[in-house]
Structure formats: structure tokens, C-alpha cells
Amino acid sequence: MFKYSGQIVKMTTKFDHPIGYSLPIGNEFIQLNEFIGHEITIDFKGDIYCIECNTKIKKTFMQGFCYPCFINSPYTSECILKPHLCQAHDGIARDMDWAKKYCLDTHYVYLALTSNLKVGVTRSTQIPTRWIDQGAHFAIKFAKTPNRYLAGLIEIEISKHISDRTQWTRMLKKDFEYCDLKEKKEHYKKLLPKKLQEYISQNEQIFELQYPDYAKFNTIKSVNLDKTPQVIGQFTGIKGQYLIIDNKYVMNVRKYTGYVLNIAFSDLAYNPI
To answer: What DSSP character marks residue 163?
Structure first.
């Protein structure tokens, strides 16, 4: 039996074929790909700590924060979810030193196939991490900007025509309609205002992402550790930030950022996938 215990945060990833996943837990990293096919036991005893100030809390805000940190931390700034509202380029931010690194840096607007064709924004250093976290199957760089605000403006324009969200159940079921991302890029760039067209990326590479996901879903049920604190079953895959158990249960790791968990894997895989 392989046993781990500690506070968890979102999984880290390595762009490979398939993508490599590690789960930070306490002071360790679980190399998750190695345990696919094994029995997994997840236990939650009730302890949650803010990932910013380490205060013990009863619930988290915005995936891992206590309420005061949610209100004050630069990591929970409004522009994280709404890039077009970023004001760092005007010298306004919760923490300008933080904003210089996270807002006043190269950003990409991208098109991705997740559950559907979607548009999104990420820092250049977060490619392809952002696509992996969203469970994208294919992605292409749409525009390159010098800051978060301009990327947000472009995203807003494109989101008038396509979604900026992912339907997680369809993403997990691989229920999407393939389309040519180069053609979509060519089409949507013509719909931008002239002043924003100068930021269109010349990179035409289509990225394909393959996941260690061997699940065959009939139904999907989301794990709720607050109501059912123990989950046991066969670990059948990973996609996005979801652990897949018994081909039907999924656990969104990001949702439980800050939770202290006990996680164990059987010595041997069973019922080979």
C-alpha cells in the first residue's frame, strides 16, 4: 500500500504523450500516472487551511483561500476571471509588484477544443498548462499581447461569437465536434476591430493534447468530500484537473485546494484497463 497525507493544491503537469500528472500533497508529489489501474482511497477528516495565510477554515473561497485573503490577495483579483477589467497597465492593482509579473507580461488569447470551441486568455508561461487544466484536446494561439488587459479585450470580442466556458461533463466524455482551428482563427480574426488585429499571432501550430484517461463513462458523478468524506474505487484516469474513479466518479482537484487528505493506492493494479 502506498500512503500519502497532507494539504493538496492543484495538480502540476508535464506536456508529454500522454500528459504527466503530479499531485502536490504535504511535502511530497504523487506521480499519479504510475497508479492508474490501482485501487485508490481518498479520506477527508475535515481539516482545511488557507493556501495564502495557512489559517484553519471551514470553507474555501475561489479554490483554497480564506475570506480575508479572497478579498485582499492579488491572486484573487477581479482580472483573474475577467482579464478585460485589468488596470495594471494604468498603475492600479492590489499589488503592483505582483501585477508586473502576472499582468504586465506577454499574454496569449487562444482557441481550444474542450467540450466545444472556446476562447480563453493565459500568460505565455502558462502554455500549455492552461490548456491541460481545461481538458483541451486541441488548441492554437490566436493573439499575442503585451499585457492582460489587451488580451481581455480580444477575448471579449471573440466571445461574442463563441463560448469562453467549458462544459466539464462533455469534456470528460470527449463529446465535442472537431473543427479546423486554423480556419476558425482566420475567420474570427477578421471580426476583430482594426486596432486589435495587429496582435494576431503568426504562430499557426495546432497543439494536440493526450491524457492518461482510460475511462469509459455511462454516467458521471462528481465527488463531494464535504458530504461523502471517503471515496474508494479503481483509479481509471486523469483529465484536466479531474481524477477519474470507477469510470463514473470524478474529483475536481482544484475544488479541494487547501484540503488535508489521506490518499492511498493498492500495491498492484487490478482489473487491467
So the answer is: B
Q: Tell me how far apart the alpha carbons of residues 222 and 25 are, in angstroms, rounded to a whole number.
A: 21
Name the helix (H) or strand (E) containing 7.
Answer: strand 2-7
pTM value?
0.94
Cis? peptide before 193, omega within 30° of 0: no
What are 65's strand-pairing partners? Answer: 61
Q: What is the dihedral of CA 188, 79, 127, 51, to 10 degrees?
A: -150
Cβ contact 120:107 at 8 Å: no
CA-nearest of 174, 86, 162 to 120 is: 162
Strands, sheet with 249-252, edge to edge from the N-terminal-most edge strand: 2-7, 259-269, 38-48, 230-239, 242-245, 249-252, 221-222
Pull the grid cell for residue 207.
497543439
Q: Among 91, 88, 83, which residue's Cα sits nearest to residue 107?
A: 83
Structure-block grid coordinates of residue 92: 492600479
DSSP 121: E
In this predicted model, what pLDDT tens digit does every residue of 236-258 receive, in sequence order? 999 999 999 998 899 999 999 99
- For residue 125, the 8-state DSSP code is G
Residue pair 273/38 in contact by the 8 Å Cβ criterion: no
**Tens digit of each residue's pLDDT (9 = 90 or more) over 36-90:** 999 999 999 999 999 999 999 999 999 999 999 999 999 999 999 999 999 999 9
Query: The sheet that has 12-14: what strands, in order across it?
Result: 12-14, 20-25, 28-31
Residue 24's DSSP bridge partners are: 29
